[in-house]
Amino acid sequence: MTGTTMIETTETMTTRDGVELVATVWRPAREGRFPVLLSRTPYGRGLEGPGYHLDVPRLVADGYAVVCQDVRGTGGSGGELRFIAGEAADGHDAVRWAATRPWSDGNVGMYGDSYLAITQLLAAQERPEGLRAIAPHVPPLGLYEAVYQPGGVANLNIILTVAVIVLAVGELDRRIARGTASPADKEAYLTAVTRPGALDELMERLPLTDQPLLADLVPFYAAWMSAPDPADPMWGGGVVRHAAIEVPALVSTGWYDYFRDASIEHFARLGGESRLIVGPWSHFSHERHICGRDYGDLASHEAVDWTGVHLDWFGHWLRGRPAGDRARVRIFVMGDDAWREEDSWPPRRAEPVRHHLRTDGTLAAEESRPGEEGRPGEEGWLGEFVADPGDPVPTVGGAVMVFDAYGPLDQRPLDGRGDVLRHQSAPLTGRVEVSGPVELVARISSTAPGADVTAKLVDVHPSGRAELLTDGIVRVTGLAPGEVREVRVPLGAISNAFLPGHRIRVDVAGSNFPRFARNPDKGTTTLHAPSYVVLPTIP
């Protein structure tokens, strides 16, 4: 019992292959059958914790039974964890089980963040009877895309941090419960990974597969790092089949979430009655502040009322209540720091405007005239940078799993580095809104056979603050000596109003570490004209 109005119980179900999965159930303390809100997690059952941002007692008070289930191989559930890849069949069975419990009225919705979000999509593609709607918040697109960027660049900061801090600790807790490990084992592990600088040292290890601390606790980490090719069979079980999903989805994410573009891609592929909400948030924070940047009252948890948004969504699809907010797309426009409704994403009225990188470090909305670029003997030369895996450009903010230094951080700490090319506009005389996916189109050559090209879109304030908006990377291989190749670097989606007096800036480099794994090839990369950033601009 958790109170006079809510009953808490622990219940077990058996999957089709005989594995027992354990769930905690919270339901109203009265007789009756209730619609069910189901979440499935590898991070531990509870009213709060990774993957949750809703007020469970409030959901129960509104007449829902709320179920949180440990996925197989985690918490109290049996079997072996098949990270993402095994969640479709188990999700189907969990929905059918929840729909047929004595306290269930047969109508099931699913909710939760991150891993809990992709379990919803994988279950929905199996079309279990009773599933009426889902609400995936910050879901990865699939297993491969959670681990890698285009070209096989590992999302090192994200995936290694999850493995070290979350999955390994969860496995130790599981072993302690089974009696195959002791609390002292866990204490020793935590001492090893939480001492100052320990995680940085793990990020710096090469090759990527060399993580002795994970070899026993998270053995599939090394397998991931050994398979950068998306066609490798090991990734097949973690692919969402969007065409098979029939239920509506409330998809939500944040502009600084590392699964932002994956979330938006899910929305685009689902169509129909699905909805999209994007706020000024990170993977973990849904508040108005991100590392010193205040997005105002409208971004606050109280103003958004995330639980209320879900009650409206599930009330309509599970209980037939009139829908409240029916906006197809709701975006928070940074800079203006205000919400806006759209009927599509990206907005149909957005116009792709090319801003060309110039030799003098400027960013211009028109292509340069012949002769404006280049230096003696090198026509079209825009600049060059050394990419050195021994001295990579350090990550400063962005969509990273760093609990005190993420999101819209000031990029001025990197100003002294000569391996970053910076191109910025003149101070703007009017407001310029960029809403949609941003892309850098760059022509490059390199002294090495392989090169990474990273890019950042930056809002430079009149004060000098260089606020990071979004970034991306592409790995180029098979470069011949003297070859100039066009590459496209997706920086991802953004909605930002560059205000009068601000400057639009693009930073180009060969690394962004440890957000992205380093390229082992050392070389000098040259940027050639025409190279430009495409900004979807609202007229």
TrEMBL record:
Transmembrane segments: none annotated. It comes from the Bacteria. The keyword Transferase does not apply. InterPro entries: AB_hydrolase_fold (IPR029058), CocE/Ser_esterase (IPR005674), Galactose-bd-like_sf (IPR008979), Xaa-Pro-like_dom (IPR000383), Xaa-Pro_dipept_C (IPR013736), Xaa-Pro_dipeptidyl-ppase/CocE (IPR050585). Residues 311-534 form the Xaa-Pro dipeptidyl-peptidase C-terminal domain. Residues 358-378 are annotated as: Disordered. One of its GO terms (molecular function) is hydrolase activity. Keywords: Hydrolase. SUPFAM superfamilies: alpha/beta-Hydrolases, Galactose-binding domain-like. Residues 366-378 have a biased composition (Basic and acidic residues). Gene3D superfamilies: alpha-amino acid ester hydrolase ( Helical cap domain), alpha/beta hydrolase, Galactose-binding domain-like. Pfam families: Peptidase_S15, PepX_C. This is CocE/NonD family hydrolase.
